[in-house]
Amino acid sequence: MSYSPDSRTLATTSRDTTTRLWNTVTGAESEVLEGHEAAVVSATFSPSGATLTTTSHDNTARVWEVRGGEELHVLRGHDHFVTSAVYSPDGSTVTTTSTDRTARVWDPESGEELHTLRGHSGPVTSVVYSPDGSTVTTTSTDRTVRVWDSESGGQLHVLEGHRGKVLSGAHSPEEGTLTTVGNDGAILVWRLG
């Protein structure tokens, strides 16, 4: 599930291959987004709330217009399940994660793939942008955290310290601090400055 930035729309995903948009004021269904060919596992609104990116076990992500529900782009490139999508703070890019061991950076306006972030030896479990959007951080079942330059797609850091799968990461609102959590029970805080 995901709320729009103004909290007036809720997106829900389903194994029935659809994403449904709901008006949170009235409770009424406003759109049914159809196009995926397998379970839809995540939905993420752009910072403006005008578009939504969904990810699916059909190995694609899709960008939709929220008002009207039109499918704008099918993001193809992953070789296995696409598990999540996160927009950059300014909405100019969206990064998808996959069990194919990559994350991919896309232009949501054109649907063009800008970068493939390769380096993990296991499924990528999460992605997060730094507050200023200059870096993208990925976590993986391979026990590593990787920090990438969002402009070039180049790898900047490999952070090792977890003894199990790294499940997610979060940047503090102030630049330079990243926190990760793993299934090893550890919460690690990293200084990136």
Report the sheet with the most strands, covering strand number, pairing sense and barrel closure: 4 strands, antiparallel
Structural class: mainly beta
Taking Cα atoms only, what radius of gyration do you get, to the nearest Å?
Answer: 16 Å
Helix proportion? under 10%
Principal-axes shape call = globular
- β-strand percent reads over 45%
Q: In the CATH classification, which architecture of the domain at 2-118 applies?
A: 7 Propeller
> Using DSSP, what is the number of strands?
19
CATH superfamily of the domain at 2-118: YVTN repeat-like/Quinoprotein amine dehydrogenase
The helix/strand series, from N terminus to C terminus, equals EEEEEEEEEEEEEEEEEEE
CATH class of the domain at 2-118: Mainly Beta
What is the CATH topology descriptor of the domain at 2-118?
A: Methylamine Dehydrogenase, Chain H
Keywords:
single chain; 193 residues; mainly beta; Methylamine Dehydrogenase, Chain H; 4-stranded antiparallel β-sheet; 19 strands; globular
Structural write-up:
There is one protein chain. Helix content is 0%, strand content 55%. The chain has 193 residues and is mainly β. It has a domain at 2-118: 7 Propeller (Methylamine Dehydrogenase, Chain H). The strands form five sheets. A four-stranded antiparallel β-sheet has the order 1-2-3-4, with no helix packed on it. Strand 7 and strand 8 form a beta hairpin. The radius of gyration is 16 Å and the shape is globular. The termini are far apart.
In short:
Pfam families: WD40. Keywords: Repeat, WD repeat. The chain has 193 residues and is mainly beta.
